[in-house]
Amino acid sequence: MRKQIAAANWKMNLTYQQAESLVDNLLALPHQLAAHQEAIFAVPFPYLTMVADKLKGKQNVYVAAQNCYTKKSGAFTGETSVEMLASIGVKHIVIGHSERREYFNETNEILAQKVDICLENNMTPIFCCGEPLSVREANEQDAFVAKQLKESLYHLSADAIQKVVIAYEPIWAIGTGKTATSQQAQDIQAFIRQQLAGQYGETVANNISILYGGSVKASNAKEIFSQPDVDGGLVGGAALIAEEFNTIINSLK
Ligand code: PEP
Q: Does the C-beta of 99 come closer than 6 Å to ligand 1?
């Protein structure tokens, strides 16, 4: 069975002290992760080791980075390499969040390089894709997302693509309070899986976790996650509240 994942994306939020309290409060709440379920916390770089320390010994709970650089090492002031992240025990990196595509000009080609360097370092990329509102209004979301997948992922072997987690995040639903309906999420995520099956075969496609992201909260997580092609969520705002995110973890199927 493919993994069901609740991934928190803290973005550029919280002081160190607030981050400590959030993790402490969350870990004090009751949650139980089955063998096929994971909780992941994508936190700002300065908090990675602190959060990793607090999660030590917890089963199926991981800390993740929100970004990495395309190069192995060298004169790239201000950047963080995958090797550095691996050396502090990070195993997951969010790649290609729409905010990075929009504000930092990350193209499908750059993201293909980031996916590659993650996989070379045994790191799981959580690869984000999803369309802006104008594309959804023109009902062209399938072609838009198919292009993102093709240009950033389809150079991978069948073995390698199964190590990628895909997060479908319609940009119009991120941080807006506007959630895709569970049917809209299911429709496009079934389409994504179909595309993967066309490229790699059904067995491979069925092994790949596809998360939904876009205003997931405690009150809608269960319904969204219950869809057959939704394997959990990537969660921004609601992941900053311990009780909300804990309910989201407990909504995994
Ligand atoms: C996100 O940051 O990836 C996200 C989906 O944010 P939100 O849950 O706040 O919409």
A: no
3-state secondary structure of 63: strand
Find the mean pLDDT for residues 10-35: 96
Residue ranges and CATH numbers for the domains of the chain are 4-249 (3.20.20.70)
Residues 6 or more apart in contact with residue 227 via CB below 8 angstroms: 182, 183, 185, 186, 189, 212
pLDDT the model gives residue 177: 80
Q: Which amino acid is at 168?
A: Y
**C-alpha 213 – ligand 1 centre gap (Å):** 6
> How large is the average pLDDT for residues 77-91?
97
Binned at pLDDT 50, 70 and 90, residue 1 comes out as confident
Residue 139 carries which DSSP code? T
234 CB within 6 A, ligand 1: yes
The pairing of strands 4-9 and 92-95 is unpaired
Q: With a 6 A CB cut-off, is 235 part of the ligand 1 pocket?
A: yes
Q: Long-range contacts for 23-26 (Cβ within 8 Å, ≥24 apart)?
A: 23/51, 23/54, 23/55, 24/54, 25/242, 26/242, 26/245, 26/246
Query: Under DSSP, is residue 192 helix (H, G, I), strand (E, B) or coil?
Result: helix
